[in-house]
Amino acid sequence: MTIDIGAKLRSVRVAFGLSQRALARRAGVTNGLISLIEQNRVSPSVSSLKKVLDGVPMTLAEFFAMDEGGQPQVFFEAAELVETGDAAVSRKLVAAARAGRQLSLLHERFAPGAATGDEILEHRGEQAGVVVRGRIELTVGGSTRVLGPGDAYYFACQLPHRFRNAGREVCEIVSAVTPPRPAVAAPVPGFPAGAEPA
Amino acid sequence: MTIDIGAKLRSVRVAFGLSQRALARRAGVTNGLISLIEQNRVSPSVSSLKKVLDGVPMTLAEFFAMDEGGQPQVFFEAAELVETGDAAVSRKLVAAARAGRQLSLLHERFAPGAATGDEILEHRGEQAGVVVRGRIELTVGGSTRVLGPGDAYYFACQLPHRFRNAGREVCEIVSAVTPPRPAVAAPVPGFPAGAEPA
DNA sequence: CGCCTCCGTTCAGCATCTTGAACACAAGCT
DNA sequence: AGCTTGTGTTCAAGATGCTGAACGGAGGCG
């Protein structure tokens, strides 16, 4: 299912109080195109969509970032946090990325020697954290660094990253991950298993 | 002066260590198309670009929000974190919401008796945190709760909220905030004041 | 009523994107 | 040398986006 650009564009246009023709005039395209796009009868080229959004005005990034959100529960006791992982690496999930939330917050604990694999290309969005206790060795992209209490990190999840507790003490981290991208089950035909270089 | 999608896509692809053909296979398009896009010889349709980015994977929003300048800083030492606030409430900002980043991470310290006022309601986005040390009294909307080490919270920033350290010990919190959507920039002639889509 | 102006939709035809199969070059291996 | 596998590029042909001009409907006004 392709994303519903049509509805998105329509809501934007209506929000600005413009008719299809008015928007078309500003954008330098024809009203027919606006109509077709809003009905999802075409998938506009990026250049066309950019022209259209320039007439609003709105950036492509803003357009695609548009989303909704809701928020039920506020407080979470330590005991009721969902815990995943094993003895080596435990993760307490404060707020799942589900339910349209824009943020996941984790309370992680790394036993001495524990490490996360080179989990690759799985996450999206961005990730940040603060070391609360102990020390952790973090590798992102090419570079490696050992972080202690109070130290922090921030990187795009798509970059290959690896956490490892090289010390003797338990390491504790509070980390946040964005966004809550609804896991689209996109089975890629012929997706290679080990096609990753170093 | 079409935006250089080509360079952007190329840098993304290379960052993942994929060849044009490898990416094409994952994305379900042909290698020729990848080549043409990277040379800016075509302006891909949104559906095609989405297919391509799904092979990375990366969302359209992330792609267009991407800064041209490659990846920013990853590691932050405790000492170099920007500190704001006073003696009562100190905030160390790991990553500002600027520069297209989608996440702000704070390391906050509340002295005994310290409190944040009933803050701004204009602040959009969501906010979550974990108590690392001490106890904090949190009021969100109507309800109040005292949270201890390991306890957590999650709420939408629009709700009136207030933090207060009612104990005698310093309270330490790591919290994450999703930034408010950047408002539309240029004033549009004839832009209606308040027209939110339902 | 007729006439005008706006709205969103539709469609033939032209422009552009996209494919599939070539091409040329480089590196490794027999 | 040849052979194989990889890289990125190019191009005719087919698929799709896009235009320009139509269409039908909803008001407003004489």
Q: Roughly what is the average pLDDT of chain A, rounded to an integer?
A: 69
The biggest beta sheet of chain A reads: 6 strands, antiparallel
Provide the succession of SSEs of chain A: HHHHHEEEEEEEEEE
Oligomer: homodimer
Count every beta strand of chain A, where a strand is a DSSP E run of 2 or more residues. Answer: 10
In the CATH classification, which architecture of the largest domain in chain A applies? Sandwich
What's the overall geometry of chain A?
rod-shaped
- In DSSP terms (H or I, runs of 4 or more residues), the helix count of chain A works out at 5
Unreliable stretches of chain A: 67-74, 79-85, 95-101, 180-198
What top-tier CATH class of the largest domain in chain A fits best?
Mainly Beta
User: Span between N and C termini of chain A?
Assistant: 33 Å
In percent, how helical is the residue content of chain A? 10-25%
Brief overview, please?
The structure is a homodimer of 198-residue chains. The first copy, chain A, is 21% helix and 28% strand.
How is this structure best described in words?
The structure is a homodimer. By secondary structure, chain A is of the alpha+beta class. Chain A folds into 2 domains: about 5-65, Orthogonal Bundle (434 Repressor (Amino-terminal Domain)); about 80-180, Jelly Rolls (Sandwich), CATH 2.60.120.10. Helices cover about 20% and strands about 30% of the residues of chain A. Chain A is built from 5 helices and 10 strands. In chain A, the strands form 2 sheets. Chain A has a 6-stranded antiparallel sheet with strand order 2-3-4-10-5-8, with no helix packed on it. A 3-stranded antiparallel sheet of chain A has the order 7-6-9, with no helix packed on it. The longest helix of chain A is centred in the N-terminal third of the chain and has 11 residues, at about 5-15. Chain A is rod-shaped, with a radius of gyration of 22 Å. In chain A, about 40% of the residues are buried. Residues about 65-75, about 80-85, about 95-100 and about 180-198 of chain A have low confidence and may be disordered.
